[in-house]
Every structure is written in structure tokens, then in C-alpha cells.
Design a protein that fits this description.
With 445 residues, the protein is mostly beta strands. It has 7 helices and 23 strands. Strand 7 and strand 8 form a beta hairpin.
Length: 445
């Protein structure tokens, strides 16, 4: 399944329109703030009888609406949902809290990745849009303050799977660290612009109201507020900052246009950036995948570029690129290696339910499916069977897939409880259809 992300990216190439307008990053008035001293994590005296678990304090039971104080390593803000989330690390573990402040306009909350922050928070109730009847208990940040600046690489770009309504499936999507963008310095902006100059970054043909004809909108170029690919705004910015780098200026004489519909293209998988202010150097580490759609081949590689900068210029002083290894990539969406394993699980679940429909009074059964476990209960509430899909094993990509499931009869009776191992064979017919057969049933060891 290692090339699934390439396939999904290819399927989604023509589906996402970045629009013809540039996104403007709000200007922030910088003001000096007083750094507060780190506080010892404390918990107030129990006042509320109801207690909950929290990833912030995994070894404690926390109280509803009680204020707690914890120190986190800040990761980023995520404002893409009904509620806004502050993401960070607590003792190396990912944690998230709902927040409600304007970090774009309030410098006190404009943290950078790696900053140590003190967060005051509490357990609170929320309801999700469209599901008002269900109440969720979550960690809500009441206040936060920076206590130390981070000195580490910042993840500027990453990839995550997200559902695309236009495609009707989950696709691999570029995610840009918006909170970092809000703090970006001009030399950092120049370095990232230069790195993205010749590499595809979700570029799509579109139009601009001030330009006749088509223009190429690219994710990173737009995020850095430099217009479209090969625009005067982008090129003039690069020429200004690389005015002392003759090699870079030669490179800027030819501006490449690489849309995400190109037969042969490259795309970023990850970009990390680190600014050493003491030595005035910026290091950009990035991973790239090249794809040839026609020949079903790919060539992943990684690269590190080091820049030296001053107050108004930047120079590329070192660049190291890993060896290229071309690999065969099967772009057929109907082959087993390009199908999400969860589709196998759901197909087998439906197959088992159909078997029960034929053998039992289906209306008298209660069926639940969650965490890849299928529970089938009778009228009296006892469990007839429990299919644990977590023990599924998929063998090979060309031969029929073999799936092993543990089935436990928890209904009791004269024979007592038993644990069985059922084996099914699953053959991929196409992306949405499978031939499933029951092979054998054995007693579990």
C-alpha cells in the first residue's frame, strides 16, 4: 500500500480549485510582552464529584470545570473545524485543546512551533454542529503564555489524508503550518520560495482578475502571499533577496510551470525549516516524490539546502540531495495494493451480516460495528458472536487476500464459551467489489 498516497493524489489532481484570489495574511502589530516564569503543574482541590480522563494528565482523574495548569511544547493552531484547536506535546505525547482567542491579532498568543507554553485549561462540555443532542467532554484552554522560545526545526509542510467531496474519497492533502506563516521572517520566506520554485506544490491552472489569460496558482506561492507562479511579485521578490547569488539569479531566468495534471511531475511530501539566528543560516530539509503517470514509475528523494542571510539578502551556500531510485508504481485503482485495507474489513463485515440474515431472524439481532469489531447480540442481550477484525492479516497483493478473524461465542449454554478462528479468502475484483468465501473454522488455541 506504499504508493496509495500517490494514487489518491493523482485521482484528486483536478478536483481541488484553489480559487483565483490570493489569501492575505493578517498584519500583526508586534509588541513586547513579559515572559512569565514556568509554573509547577498543579491541580486544585476537588470541588466537583464528576471526574474524567485527559491526555494532558493520563495518570489522574480530572474534575469537570476545574482549572488546571500544564506546560506544553507548542505545535500549531488548527482552525479548520467548528471549534478551534491548539495542538502541542505533553511529555512527547500529542494533545489538543479547544481555544477561543485571536492569535493573529494578539501577539501574546502568536506562538511558534517548539515554544514552551503554560496553559490554563479545564474540562468542558461542547456539542458539534448538526449533532446538538450529543454532548462531548473536551479540554478547553482558558489562557496560555510563552515561557521559552523553541530552537528546533519547524514543520512548514506535511501531508495528511482528508475527505474530498469532489472525488468521493480520502485524498493525500498538503497541509501548511499557518501559525508559522504568521511569524515568518523575510529571509525564511525567501528560502522557502526558492525551494518551491521548481517543485510542484498543488499547482492548478486558473485565472486572475488583473491578468489576461490563465495563470498557475500554487499552494506554497499563494500561502507566502506571492501571487501565482512566475508572477512579477514572485520573481521580483526572489531577485531582490538573491541579488548577491549569481547562480540563483541564473536559475530565475527560466520560470517553470508544473501543474498537478502533468504526466511527469514532482510534489512535496514534507518541508522542515530551521533558522539559526546566531550564525545567520537557514536550513531547509524537504522530501519530494517524482511521478511519471504514463510509465507508472516514481522516484522519491530528500534534499537539504543551507542558506546564509543578512538583513536584505540571502545566498544558497550548500545543497545535498539523496540518490534517486526509480520504482515501479501501479497506478491502477482496482489493484489490491492501491485499495485501502479498511475496504477489505467493511466488505467482510457486510458478507458476515448477509450470512446471518440467511441463517437467523435478523430483525431480532442487535448489530454494532466499531473499532473494527463486529458484535452481534440476541434479544436477551447476550453476545452471540464477536468478530475481531484487528487480527486480520492480508497476505500478498496478487494472490487472493486471506483474512483471519477471532470469533468468540459469549452466549454460554451447555457447551460454555468458545473461541474460534474463522478463515476467509478475499479476491479483489475491482476497487469496490470483492469475491469472499468462507474457507474453514477451527477452535482457537
Amino acid at each position: 500500500m506504499r504508493y496509495l498516497s500517490f494514487l489518491i493524489l493523482f485521482l484528486s489532481l483536478a478536483s481541488c480549485n484553489q480559487g483565483a484570489k490570493e489569501k492575505k495574511i493578517p498584519e500583526t502589530k508586534v509588541r513586547q510582552i513579559e515572559t512569565i516564569q514556568e509554573q509547577v503543574d498543579t491541580i486544585a482541590t476537588d470541588k466537583t464529584p464528576t471526574k474524567f480522563s485527559s491526555a494532558l494528565r493520563p495518570n489522574e482523574r480530572v474534575l469537570f470545570n476545574e482549572i488546571y495548569t500544564d506546560t506544553l511544547e507548542f505545535s500549531d493552531y488548527n482552525d479548520d473545524f467548528d471549534y478551534w484547536y491548539l495542538n502541542g506535546l505533553k511529555k512527547g505525547k500529542d494533545v489538543s485543546l479547544i481555544y477561543n482567542w485571536e492569535w493573529r491579532t494578539d501577539e501574546d498568543y502568536n506562538f511558534r512551533q517548539g515554544d514552551l507554553i503554560v496553559v490554563e485549561w479545564k474540562m468542558d462540555r461542547i456539542v458539534m454542529a448538526g449533532d446538538e443532542e450529543v454532548v462531548h467532554m473536551v479540554e478547553r484552554a482558558v489562557d496560555a503564555r510563552k515561557i521559552a522560545s523553541g530552537n528546533q526545526r519547524v514543520q512548514f509542510l506535511s501531508r495528511q489524508m482528508a475527505y474530498d467531496e469532489a472525488v468521493g474519497a480520502e485524498v493525500s492533502t498538503m497541509v501548511i503550518n499557518q501559525s508559522y506563516l504568521h511569524n515568518i521572517t523575510p529571509p525564511e520566506k525567501a528560502a522557502l520560495t526558492f525551494v518551491a520554485y521548481e517543485i510542484g506544490n498543488d499547482c492548478e491552472w486558473g485565472y486572475d482578475s488583473d491578468v489576461n489569460g490563465r495563470v498557475l496558482w500554487c499552494r506554497i506561492v499563494s500561502a507566502l502571499d506571492l501571487g501565482y507562479q512566475c508572477s512579477d511579485k514572485q520573481l521580483n521578490f526572489l531577485r531582490k533577496w538573491f541579488s548577491k547569488d549569481t547562480v540563483a539569479l541564473k536559475k530565475l531566468e527560466r520560470c517553470p510551470t508544473l501543474p498537478n495534471t502533468a504526466t511527469v511531475q514532482t510534489t512535496f511530501d514534507e518541508i522542515l525549516i530551521q533558522n539559526n539566528e546566531a550564525e545567520k543560516t537557514i536550513t531547509v530539509d524537504y522530501k519530494v516524490t517524482g511521478i511519471n503517470m504514463r510509465e507508472s514509475s516514481s522516484w522519491p528523494y530528500s534534499q537539504t539546502d543551507v542558506f546564509e542571510y543578512g538583513s536584505e539578502h540571502i545566498i544558497l551556500i550548500d545543497s545535498k540531495k539523496s540518490d534517486l531510485t526509480e520504482e515501479e508504481t501501479n497506478m491502477n485503482p482496482d489493484t489490491a495494493e492501491n485499495i485501502d485495507p479498511q475496504n477489505f474489513v467493511l466488505a467482510l463485515k457486510d458478507h458476515i451480516l448477509n450470512e446471518w440474515k440467511q441463517e437467523d431472524d435478523f430483525d431480532s439481532l442487535k448489530i454494532t460495528f466499531g473499532d473494527n469489531i463486529l458484535n452481534i447480540r440476541g434479544n436477551e442481550g447476550f453476545t452471540l458472536s464477536r468478530y475481531d477484525f484487528k487480527e486480520m492479516v492480508i497476505n500478498g497483493t496478487k494472490d487472493p487476500q486471506t483474512l483471519y478473524l477471532t470469533v468468540t461465542n459469549e452466549g454460554g449454554g451447555a457447551g460454555g464459551n468458545v473461541a474460534l478462528v474463522e478463515t476467509y479468502s478475499l479476491t479483489v475484483l475491482d476497487a469496490g467489489n470483492f469475491d469472499i468465501k468462507h474457507v474453514e473454522t477451527d477452535l482457537a488455541d
